[in-house]
Please model this.
Amino acid sequence: MIYKIYPGKPYPLGATWDDKGVNFALYADNATGVELCLFNNGKEKKIALNERTHQIWHCYIPGIEPGQLYGYRVHGPFEPENGHRYNPNKLLIDPYAKAISGVINWHDSIFGYEVGHPDEDLSFSDTDSADFVPKSVVIDSHFAWEDDQPPRVPYHQSIIYEAHVKGFTQQHPDIPEEIRGTYEALGHPVTIKYLQDLGITAIELMPVHQFVADRHLVEKGLTNYWGYNTIAFFAPDVRYAGRIDAGKQVQEFKQMVKELHKAGIEVILDVVYNHTGEGNHLGPTLSFKGIDNASYYRLVEDNQRYYKDYTGTGNTLNAMLPNVLRYIMDSLRYWIEEMHVDGFRFDLASTLARELHEVNRLSAFFDIIHQDPIISQVKLIAEPWDVGEGGYQVGKFPPGWAEWNGKYRDCIRDYWIGADSMLGEFGQRFTGSPDLYQDDYRRPTASINFITAHDGFTLNDLVSYNEKHNEANGEDNNDGESHNRSWNCGVEGPTDDPEINKLRDRQKRNLLATLFLSQGVPMLVAGDEFGRTQHGNNNAYCQDNEISWLNWAEADEKLLTFTRKLIQIRKEHPIFRRRRWFQGQPVKGKGLEDIAWFLPEGVEMEEENWNHDFARSLGVFLNGLGLHSVGSQGEKITDDSFYVIFNAHHEALEYKLPEKIYSKKWKIILDTNNDEINEQTLNEQESITVEGRSIVLLHHPLP
Model:
């Protein structure tokens, strides 16, 4: 086929179809030449790009339509020691590709050097990789969004649900088999009804950007199931598409978002802008490395052959460079404006904040997001750590950001395990972690509270296993966190012992109840609400099988019902999702503080009570009249009052209701010692017995 080639434009970057043809634009600062490669019926047509505007190579070709497969070959110096790894024998994925045609077929030709050569990556490979690299796809961006609007659920009303696109529906019996594990399945009415019944307001999807399944995993019959290994930051991964037509995954993703929005459910993406799937100096040449290695990655200053690795994956994208910042911002804006997503959770976000070496809260990355009128208006959630020195940054992200609160997770687990911990920290975490966020003019909603996440034990396994069981990962059980803090259940894994199972079930309810009664934003991992197990595997990143997929057939319906009612209690009562901090001061004209803390004897806690590492019990009075808040329409918000009793002792304790809050109107509406939530009137009792390792929630209606 003969193509007419016109100069085209340097912007927008990527391949842009305008109904008449396609504009191609590629950033490659240090390149000496760029070839656009078009593929039709397995044949490759190379077109030299002769137009260059500053660092961008571009052309326009009329007549090309959506579905066209393409890639690039880029010429330049092959000088690894100076940071340059150009090799035109390698077909390269367009960083701005909106869709990818397939997945990598691992072969030695994918590497820029000769695999097995004694000089390793200093050698040069002249074998062609085109047959083994998936092609970029020209897409039609048109879509019938109709009246789609972002739900814009306020943080304080949010219930976040972390899920994997495939794993959530792959075994769901009520979803058509031919679409299970796809974007379409997530937008299916069965899925949406389940999420609505549960009370979810936002689904946080594990990575959906096109990613690389590592060669060493594929050769062992495994894969990178989680997807934290991105190679194309604009392209929804083709693995989750139901149709094989090139580029159709974009339409399917948009339809999924549209259906979830109709149900009032937001879509948050887990994004991995800290590194790419090209690995270290011995990794493959798939895209960035061959386009302009030195302009994308953080390299070791005195030997640019090597990469700085703050992520534990081999490389780190250099967010200090203007072109990388532009790339990240363009990607974020694309997913907001074109794909209609509602927010992002940034994997290893501390890496993006590193300037030179130290994590810098005032880095260019934060500045540019803060100033962006589009990105700054969606939900921005940081995983506030990386694997580099000084990378643990919980509580240190700027206003406007929420954070996965790892300190919340650790403290709440420690409390219910019975580990040595201070009640003072438990009180901080329960009230939204003011010690981390209040001084920076942030609100309780800066804290994304979670007990479990995709990385680690499921809730069921957390209370069922003392040690990890990752043998299926093929690393002799050496991967993942070394062990689970002992839950003193006495038996490893499933058991027929009714007493142990009763304790485990109670601990699951305790952890869930603490999560949903705490200030901040709760995040629930898909399946924890019904007792999902990974059989002790706490690092199932490579398990695209029944270990990771939700097993709907074995769902614990009682736990599911309990969780639904917990979420309902939270959503019905704003006292559990305050927009502002507790003050610990008497409510005007009422004489009672907005929050007060009591010992089992019914006396108010003193300063010294907070600092005992053996303390395991306390009562918390939440004064609904003390919300000191107004709603979005200016209405005054008040609520009923509640008294939460926590008993992490292994034995039952008698709790006396404090005189200052004693009333004949208290009702027990939650007791984690039972697997059902039923209201029970106290009948003028002045005290209540709280069983060992359990929570009791008392409700006092407005007068």
The chain has 15 helices and 30 strands. The chain has a mean pLDDT of 93. The CA atoms of residues 307 and 600 lie 57 Å apart.
